[in-house]
Design goal:
homodimer, about 250 residues, mainly alpha, Chorismate Mutase, subunit A, 9 helices, about 55% helix, Chorismate mutase (chains A, B), aromatic amino acid biosynthesis (chains A, B), Chorismate_mutase_AroQ_euk (chains A, B), cytoplasm (chains A, B), Chorismate_II_sf (chains A, B)
Chain lengths: ~250, ~250
């Protein structure tokens, strides 16, 4: 893709497809460990002196460091705990100004956090706890950041779609008609294809690779059927939600 | 493996095999970005007010947080910057005391850091820079921690091998004969098999999965031949180095 416009519809589609791999890798890594519900429980007494859940504290502190090193200068990145983040020590990078400034006010990470902890994790993490709190928190952060990046990429998707056909979107934007915008952004056959692809990827990346056999006896590191559910119930609807929010601000 | 002894030779072998996947996933993620040599240059003037390279600073600060959340209570984890790490806020976990106490003094992360930055990265990261410093630093940390965990796992390998046949290792330990120990720990046919397996894994996990075709046209996200080199030249020799160091302390 060297030399091509990184914000063409094709480049953006390629990025979304590549981000599927990142999401699946991170879920496979998290699936190594059991659920460890204490990690997510803000009333958990095994972490004395820590208010809020252990994961919450870990993510807050890690995001503060990542902010210092410039993570949130990128319009592709959205923090889970945006309040009181320190300034970046790294001078502003030359991110091309692609998005409408209204994009900065769209952050649905609270919803993503809630879905990840309460709906997605119980689908694939085995019950129980092994006290590997730190390794699991690091895996959770990877998963959360990968999902957040993918879903908020809807801002770029919406910008490219709008630029390609402003006349198609402008009436619904002016009318603040969310339903009409959602309809314009929904392509069921594409969504079905994405769901099939992520399931196939989970099978390929989650197989146990050995030198002897080329089939994996149906054993996968993460149940492949979790992926089409994740995409069908949450990733794609939330991406479109971000797209709608972006379009509603696009003509401000 | 539920219920089985996590420190049997078989469990340890299974862990080493599973860690191959983690290492390959993390390298594939790093390969998304070009090299960005500024990130590793301690004299780089684009980060005013920061002494040391950006990656060094990022890893130091992240390790400090991870220490607070208990990472280095686990005998499987070794910090890259062990000086002045804060105490853990999390109460001591019930890690079984498997290793000889001498294990704690073995930390070859300086060597691993040097090899990763100066030898491994140039083998697979494309030239150039894209200023994605923070995302790359996070990928580098994943790679470094995965390699460090794998290589220092040699402590557990050595312990199990010693316990299985103390009479085989004790004379060389008493004689402080590193060469003899290295010979006892080297199984060339096994090493060849590992190299073949990690190359195959890189092909499987690094392919572009699409719904239409099941071959990947020879396009991989990371050159699969990097993996047998990584394992043959660095991972396996360094693991054996850790094993020798551990055995030399085993009878103290």
């Amino acid at each position: 893709m060297a030399g091509s416009d990184p914000f063409s519809l094709e480049s953006i589609r390629n990025s979304l497809i590549r981000q599927e791999d990142t999401i699946i890798f991170s879920l496979i890594e998290r699936a190594k460990y059991p659920l460890n519900p204490q990690l997510y429980d803000s009333r958990c007494s095994i972490f004395p002196g820590i208010a809020g859940s252990l994961l919450e504290n870990f993510v807050k502190e890690t995001e503060a460091i990542q902010a210092k090193f410039g993570r949130y200068q990128s319009p592709e990145e959205n923090p889970f705990f945006p309040d009181n983040l320190p300034d970046s020590l790294v001078p502003p990078q030359s991110h091309p100004q692609v998005l409408h400034p209204g994009a900065a006010s769209i952050n649905i990470n609270k919803t993503i956090w809630d879905i990840y902890i309460n709906k997605l994790l119980p689908l694939f993490a085995s019950e129980g706890h092994d006290e590997n709190y730190m390794c699991i928190s690091a895996c959770d952060l990877e998963c959360l950041q990968a999902l957040s990046r993918r879903i908020h990429y809807g801002k770029f998707v919406a910008e490219v779609k709008f630029k390609d056909a402003p006349e198609e979107y402008s009436p619904a934007i002016h009318a603040k008609d969310r339903d009409a915008l959602m309809k314009l952004l929904t392509f069921e056959s594409v969504e079905e294809m994405v769901k099939k692809r992520v399931e196939k990827k989970a099978k390929v990346f989650g197989q146990e690779v050995t030198l002897n056999n080329d089939d994996c006896n149906g054993k996968f590191k993460i149940d492949p059927s979790v992926l089409p559910r994740l995409y069908g119930e949450w990733v794609m609807p939330l991406t479109k939600h971000v797209e709608v929010e972006y379009l509603l601000r696009r003509l401000d």
